Amino acid sequence: MKLFPSNTIAWYVARMFLIRTLAFIVGLVVILESLDLLGESGKILAAAGNSEADLWVYVGLRVPQIIQLFLPFAVLLATLVTLATLNQNSEVVIFKSAGISAHQILLPLILAGLGVAAINFAFNERIVTRATETLRAWQANEYRKVTEETAPTTARWVRGGDDLFNAETVTGTGAATRLGNVTIYDRVDNKLVRVVMAEAATPQAEGWTLAQVRIFDVAAGTIRNVPSLAFPTSVVPRQFTTANIDPAYVPLWDLIPQIGEQRAAGKPVDTLVAAAHHKVSGPLSAALMPLLGAVAAFGLARSGRLFVRAVIGMFLGFAFFVADNFMLAMGNFGTVPPVMAAWAPFLLFLLIGEAVLIRTEE
């Protein structure tokens, strides 16, 4: 009834799994980064002032992304190779003849997978987020040196009801917020009625006060100028002063309070909530792989079906990744609740793996 009837066997199995995981991720990183560098090296060296040292800078920024993307695949491959090797050498038969159950054989791999998941989570939130932000800014500047002067500034878009607001500049906060070069697309029942352009806008009790206004009437096709205009709307200053968030740039502990700010500003947060949950459920897939690959560990190797079992385990693992990406995309589109989008594939394949293991081995 012990979790580990033999500490020696548990450490032996876990060590095999961890060594193979490390070998697979190193091999994948070397191969994929080499291919990626071949395609990007010309663009990097074409930028004025860049040298071979910048190629190593690119490698340092790109490798964390590759590790984040392919570590779950490395864990899956390591699981299949480890369990197939134990089966091929009849070690699983020896373990079971000693009274060790299938779950007890897999438990060291699952705990090792949890350790890999914890390291992966910390690595993603501390290193990958920073590397991704730096690399995308560098790529957006066509691999030229990124400075404050060359950093791109984007206009701000906000929606209030049917109306769309665009402000080129935003300064101040709260009642002191000031918008510059504002364009308002005034719509009724999703039909454009007029376009209101103003040099400046300041908040008032039930909307905004616009200065130096030009109004284009869509139906009449005419333009008229007015010195000022009170524009009633549900858009509030906070919607402009809370910046758009890319979860790939923000660690989880910073993302959670920012989601609260976005929700308070009336902005949609379902995509951010799904991304926040996936920051946890994604790395946890490392602990799920031993259960999905368990089908390769059992059954007699001399029956000639070991390869078929390994293929089934690989199919289950890749089916999980497909389902995970599909559900996350559905969450981003708002088709399913964000929590379900992040956790449903994990829980579904956990039940599938347990059902297969109990039905065939327990």
UniProtKB/TrEMBL annotation:
Annotated membrane topology: Multi-pass membrane protein
Alphabetical keyword list: Cell membrane, Membrane, Transmembrane, Transmembrane helix
Highest rank taxon of the organism: Bacteria
Subcellular location: Cell membrane
A GO BP entry: lipopolysaccharide transport
Gene Ontology CC: ATP-binding cassette (ABC) transporter complex
Annotated protein name in UniProt: Lipopolysaccharide export system permease protein
Organism the protein comes from: Polymorphobacter multimanifer
